[in-house]
Amino acid sequence: MNIHSVYLQYSSKVTNETYRNFISSLQKEGVEVYALDGAPDWGITDHESKEQFLKWFHNYQADAPLHEQFKGMHLDIEPYLLENWETNQEEIIFQFQTLLLQLKDFAENRNTSLGVDIPFWFDEVPFDNKYGQGYLSQWLIQNTDETTIMAYRNFAEGNNGIIDISTQEVDWAEQENKKITIAVETEKTPEEHVSFHNENKHTLVSEIKLVQDHYKGRIAGIAIHSFESMKKRSQ
């Protein structure tokens, strides 16, 4: 597989020197590295870890030479994992949107890109507040530089397959002239149809090719979660 981007999880335990060496070595191979972080309660109850990440990202980018800098930020927030998502969805969505706009300003002020993970079913989640009205996926596509659809299925074609559950988001991204990536899962999950964990390398590669061929020229690529589990499928 031809890897052109890596979403690298931020950790305060990793030294900046390690990050710089890692990014520099990948850039020489034509691979861009994005700083990955996020949590369901960012912007709601957990402000400390968010601020810690943003402060670190700002300082790191300011100190590192261009060939050792991150290409941008990539956020995996997933507010729907909060316990009160079902009972307080409107307020959580509003707080999530408020947070994203703050992060958008943060990224723009530092001349860097902002990407975000979205579940495929956000295209059925409505909102109606001071930020307008519509569906959450479309709003997120409009207000970020790049989105990654967590289209977690282990088959490409047919009803409820990767292609089927990604179509609306790909259409919206095309309308907005925004980059969009389709992500698949290779980690073990409770529901087998969600992940390629129990599939062999040939199945993973062939199903991904079906998605790539279907959306040829319309998507930025295929993201695979995660690198460790992907390596096992490649053996």
Describe this structure in words.
The longest helix is centred in the middle third of the chain and has 21 residues, at 89-109. The protein starts with a strand and ends with a helix. It has 235 residues and is an alpha/beta fold. The protein has helices at residues 16-27, 48-63, 89-109, 136-142, 162-176, 201-214, 227-233, and strands at residues 5-9, 32-37, 72-75, 113-119, 126-129, 132-135, 146-150, 179-185, 221-225. The mean pLDDT is 96. It is 39% helix and 20% strand. It has 2 domains: 1-118, no CATH class; 151-235, no CATH class.
| Count of discrete alpha- or pi-helical segments spanning 4 or more residues | 7
If you compute it from the alpha carbons, what radius of gyration comes out, rounded to the nearest whole angstrom?
18 Å
List unreliable stretches of 5+ residues. Answer: none
Question: How many strands, what sense, and barrel or not for the largest sheet?
Answer: 7 strands, parallel
Mean pLDDT: 96
Strands of the widest sheet, in order across it, are: 1-2-3-4-7-8-9
CA-to-CA gap between the ends? 13 Å
Shape: globular
Range of helix content = 25-40%
| Secondary-structure element string | EHEHEHEEEHEHEHEH
- Overall structural class, as computed from helix and strand content, comes to alpha/beta
Instruction: Estimate nothing, just give the exact number of structural domains.
Output: 2
